[in-house]
Fold:
Amino acid sequence: MEVGTMPYSWPQDTDFIQWELDVSDRNCPFCGRMMYICDHRYRRFHTLEGPVELVCKLNHCPDRGCPGHSHTKSPELEITIAPPQWAIGWDVFCWIGQRRCSRHWSIAQIQADLWDDFQIRLSHDALGKYVQRYQVMLAARQQDPEALRRQYQNVDEIILTIDGLQPEKGHETLYVVRELTQKRVWFAEALISATADEVRRLIAKAKEWAASLGKPVVLWLSDCQDAFVTGIAAEFPGVPHRYCDNHFLRDVAKPVLEADSHAKVQMRRKVRGLRKIEQAVFKEQNAAAAVSVVAADPKITQAETAAPAPAAVAEVETDSASAVVLDYCAAVRGILNDDQGGPLHPPGLRMAEALVEVRDSLQRNLDEKKGGPQKSNSAVWPAASTEDWTKSGPSKRRSANTSRTSRK
Structure:
């Protein structure tokens, strides 16, 4: 679907909520007479409450000699509900923008969640254009001079920071200037070549913004690249320029982060076989579905039960044990793919702690199944310790404990 250019195809069985809108001020702007309803305009769009069919009552002046007779007036509230020619309302538009800009969701994630939670089906192209329009509106709002003055009305001093971000590999770096007292992004610009002159131009632009607000800049923060150092010194002489805390800690903790990264690799090598476990569970569920189909209709042949229909599989009640196994697999996969963290919260350490929690949870389930708390069986589960994180060559010999566990 093309936003604003191609019509949206609605399924025939769509159940619409009907809203009616009329003109608030029905006085003719030319002669002052009361306007009459001359026509109706129907439009359909998605909202978070469901599909809506909006009926707009169009008004015009009844006097044929008045210029207002040839001009129809639309309800004033229509634009506050949905923009013209859009297939979504403002509520869906803001929901998409918030997930994209605040939570950094991908288009595929937004598309799936819209369908799962609200049964709103939009194409990748349409979502991409809605996101682009949201970003344009957000940028315009961020640079509104009147809004900026109101926000900084009670601020005495300004602290600025500049940093380069690379959203995806191979793309140009996005340089962002932020103000820290109000935690506001002032502006951002993608630079193909981050030369000293280009960086200084951005710093000069920040100087113009500060001058327009009439507020002094008392501090600059950055990762102290050469272009930042020379540019800030030239445009803001005498203003202190400090090393960003996050970059400082990251540089200091670089040896620790390298060891932490090696630990993640070692743990991922040890935690394997999730896909095989899931495939085994799905195979058992399909077999159970086939058995239930045969029980329901003995005339069905064995060949027909080899590949049960999806509807039959869905009707089979999911085994609670199988659901628990799949939940554990999903949890472990999420732990292994989690790269969030930083110098103070290394991701490898967080991964080890989470895997220990999963191991303890599995052990509690085993103890419960055996009839109560048992003697600690820590020998069966290899402990996660820093010894496993030391850099060493891969060993082909399997321990006795691991072999015993696999046979179980």
Residues 1-5, 305-318, 375-408 have pLDDT under 50 and may be disordered. The longest strand covers residues 36-47.
